[in-house]
Amino acid sequence: MATSLDNVKEPIVATPEARQAFEEAALKALEKFGAVRSEKNPWGLTVVVDRCNLHATVLAIRDELGLDMLMDVVGIDYLGFKDYVGPRFAVEYVFKSVYEPAKRMMVKVLVEEADLKVPTISDLYAIANWQEREVYDQYGVIFEGHPDLRRILNHVEFVGHPLRKDYPAHRRQWLSTNDYLYPTLEKRLESKGYRILERPEEINPSEEEYLQGSIKK
């Protein structure tokens, strides 16, 4: 008698040989974009590309190499790194294949502090929308072409970018208004065909409530 377990397949294991084969194929596929292998990383291949080639590189990673998952977009501030020479900031993208574990890699873009801009890839991976907003919020990187680039973790009135190495860790800021989220939610609902029948009133906490845990400048 057949059971539901009869069709369960053994998990695919990424062998060292399979990972090496993927890394060689990836380097060959991305060399036309000027991708250069970075430092050794036990997790997988890391390449550095110029920001002007980022979008084309990521498109090839998705469509030619089959990495269908963008796991993360990470900001890096190299300020204070021992023996580091190069642009202060970097943005790193982490990709993998859902069904082929040997396929995984990272792409790094180095960015000068005076021109902190990289192109968005939110049109290629939808999850990048929120991930790029987080890097913008915490590091100040501008993702050009992003459809809705605004803070996602910190208050709308927050000044600065708290994951930068030179941000004062103990600084506290006075925020004087609600971070009102209804307009964004309403816009999304209306784009899906819903009609807003009634809008809630904005609630304004008292100054005493704002002062709890804060310092007024």
Automatic annotation (TrEMBL):
<comment type="subunit">
    <text>NDH-1 is composed of 14 different subunits. Subunits NuoB, C, D, E, F, and G constitute the peripheral sector of the complex.</text>
</comment>
<dbReference type="InterPro" id="IPR010218">
    <property type="entry name" value="NADH_DH_suC"/>
</dbReference>
<feature type="domain" description="NADH:ubiquinone oxidoreductase 30kDa subunit">
    <location>
        <begin position="47"/>
        <end position="172"/>
    </location>
</feature>
<keyword id="KW-1278">Translocase</keyword>
<protein>
    <recommendedName>
        <fullName>NADH-quinone oxidoreductase subunit C</fullName>
        <ecNumber>7.1.1.-</ecNumber>
    </recommendedName>
</protein>
<keyword id="KW-1003">Cell membrane</keyword>
<keyword id="KW-0874">Quinone</keyword>
<keyword id="KW-0520">NAD</keyword>
<comment type="similarity">
    <text>Belongs to the complex I 30 kDa subunit family.</text>
</comment>
<dbReference type="Pfam" id="PF00329">
    <property type="entry name" value="Complex1_30kDa"/>
</dbReference>
<comment type="function">
    <text>NDH-1 shuttles electrons from NADH, via FMN and iron-sulfur (Fe-S) centers, to quinones in the respiratory chain. The immediate electron acceptor for the enzyme in this species is believed to be ubiquinone. Couples the redox reaction to proton translocation (for every two electrons transferred, four hydrogen ions are translocated across the cytoplasmic membrane), and thus conserves the redox energy in a proton gradient.</text>
</comment>
<keyword id="KW-0830">Ubiquinone</keyword>
<dbReference type="GO" id="GO:0050136">
    <property type="term" value="F:NADH dehydrogenase (quinone) (non-electrogenic) activity"/>
</dbReference>
<dbReference type="GO" id="GO:0005886">
    <property type="term" value="C:plasma membrane"/>
</dbReference>
<dbReference type="InterPro" id="IPR037232">
    <property type="entry name" value="NADH_quin_OxRdtase_su_C/D-like"/>
</dbReference>
<keyword id="KW-0813">Transport</keyword>
<keyword id="KW-0472">Membrane</keyword>
<dbReference type="InterPro" id="IPR001268">
    <property type="entry name" value="NADH_UbQ_OxRdtase_30kDa_su"/>
</dbReference>
<dbReference type="GO" id="GO:0008137">
    <property type="term" value="F:NADH dehydrogenase (ubiquinone) activity"/>
</dbReference>
<dbReference type="GO" id="GO:0048038">
    <property type="term" value="F:quinone binding"/>
</dbReference>
